[in-house]
Write a structure and sequence with these properties.
It is built from 16 helices and no strands. The chain has helices at residues 19-22, 25-57, 60-97, 100-136, 141-156, 158-173, 178-200, 209-234, 251-283, 288-302, 304-326, 330-357, 359-364, 371-403, 408-431, 437-461.
Length: 477
């Protein structure tokens, strides 16, 4: 593809940034990584504020409710979002080859597919299945009462969040991360303002507590989605939609979206099912509500300072590796993963040190500064300080694999490392009647360590170098 004559961008449409395939590699990785990392940190701040507000204004059950609800929401939407992984593979390949029309066509078909699945499938099924899902994870009755309206709101409004995730992935794969950063910051600011007003009650608005957090998140996501769609039709982005594009499915593209995306979707389902099983183990502990709150705050929110930056590096690595493979530079693709890994390890070291030195300050921000909740939470943070090194390496190498089209490898690795290892360990301890919170935290570390080791080994096998993308360029948009 790299040597062929490719369609030129339409008038007004941005050009692909060729520094990704031609410039210094550390600069190319960092150019895509830092905006995504910053966006994820800012987005993570939104969740931190939600937890802090409901923790202080509603109580312990509200913290646990948001944590378990988000775990369930991610489990259900991950299949819909899997199409975005396939889209990222195609967009990066076509962008690396300079094929503008194929990029536009791919993103448009991914958008139509996501809208249909979110509105026609996810919203109705999620709404009616929410009570059963909360019962399945053994959430305490008080937690279920707080979680149900939040979870239902997230399902019904999921199209906003999914559109944001889709466009973020599309633009990142095409080399434009600054637009995503600006839109992400705008969404986070709106979300924080809406949640402060709706959770606590401000002016004429009633204090809606946990339900208010769901409404604020939904409103911010939908407004941002409309903004993205407007930009796509305005022709100001590196990806462009036009009014001449048909609603008719382009099956060659859709098949490729699911060919690369479905393994990632199954991987996400497996990982989140494992997370739900871990929540069941936590729910069986003596101090289950305190442990669930500590898990929601420590693992879901504070650990996101590592995972969200690592996810940003994963996305950057996927884009750089995919574009360079599309441009015929497989060695640069391989080197980009090592560059991203070094950045991730530095971040994990700084954040992990703060977990060890300042647990009371960090947990106190969520009303977990003393008592049993603090004891369990500070113990978890010590384990996560170690786990952070493994998870950042695992995610960087996962980005390299997925970005180049090897989405099956990470699926198998995740089943072993995120399901069999941690769930197996907790099951053994539970069967012997000796399961403690420390056993569950150790299971998390063991799972991340296994994932890091297997991801590095899989990438170094080099099978990704020979993966081909098969979308006819003559397909009608």
């Amino acid at each position: 593809m790299a040597g062929e004559s490719q369609p030129l961008p339409k008038p007004g449409q941005k050009k692909f940034d060729r520094r990704i395939i031609d410039g210094p590699l550390p600069q190319a990785v960092w150019m895509l990584a830092w905006p995504t990392m910053l966006q994820n940190i800012i987005g993570g701040l939104q969740g931190v504020i939600d937890h802090a507000l409901v923790g202080h204004y509603v109580g312990l059950n509200a913290n646990a409710a948001i944590g378990v609800s988000l775990q369930l929401f991610i489990l259900v939407i991950v299949f819909v979002a899997s199409v975005f992984s396939g889209m990222g593979v195609l967009v990066a390949r076509f962008a690396g080859a300079g094929d503008v029309e194929a990029v536009n066509r791919t993103v448009y078909q991914a958008f139509l597919t996501a809208v249909f699945m979110a509105v026609g499938v996810l919203a109705p099924i999620g709404y009616f299945a929410a009570p059963w899902l909360l019962t399945m994870i053994n959430a305490a009755p008080g937690v279920q009462e707080e979680a149900l309206p939040f979870l239902r709101t997230m399902f019904v409004s999921s199209i906003g969040m999914l559109t944001f995730f889709m466009m973020s992935g599309a633009l990142r794969a095409a080399g434009d991360v600054k637009t995503t950063l600006r839109m992400g910051v705008a969404m986070t600011i709106m979300n924080i303002v809406f949640n402060i007003v709706l959770i606590t009650g401000w002016g004429p608005f009633p204090a809606l507590g946990t339900f208010g957090a769901g409404l604020g998140t939904a409103a911010a996501g939908l407004i941002t989605a409309f903004g993205f769609v407007w930009l796509l039709f305005s022709g100001r982005l590196v990806v462009r939609f036009t009014r001449t594009m048909s609603f008719k499915p382009d099956w060659p593209i859709i098949r490729e979206l699911f060919r690369f995306g479905l393994p990632t979707g199954i991987q996400g389902i497996a990982m989140n099912l494992a997370g739900l099983l871990m929540l069941r183990f936590i729910g069986s502990l003596q101090y289950s509500a305190e442990a669930q709150a500590a898990y929601a705050v420590g693992y879901t929110e504070l650990f996101s300072l590592i995972t969200w930056t690592s996810v940003g590096l994963m996305g950057a690595t996927a884009a750089v590796a995919g574009q360079n493979l599309g441009a015929g530079h497989p060695d640069r693709a391989a080197q980009s993963v090592a560059v991203a890994g070094r950045i991730g390890l530095a971040v994990a070291a700084v954040v992990g040190l703060s977990f060890v030195l300042f647990p009371r300050v960090l947990l106190g921000a969520f009303a977990l500064g003393d008592g049993v909740g603090y004891e369990i939470g500070s113990q978890l943070l010590r384990y996560l300080a170690i786990s952070g090194f493994f998870v950042t390496v695992a995610l960087c190498y996962t980005g390299g694999l997925q970005g180049t089209g090897d989405t099956k490898g990470p699926l198998y690795i995740s089943i072993v490392s995120q399901v069999i290892v941690p769930v197996g360990w907790c099951s053994i301890r539970s069967a012997t009647g000796t399961l403690t919170a420390a056993d569950i935290w150790l299971a998390i570390v063991l799972g991340h360590a296994t994932r890091a080791m297997l991801s590095v080994l899989r990438f170094r096998q080099g099978k990704w170098r020979n993966i081909r993308v098969a979308v006819p360029k003559s397909a009608t948009p």
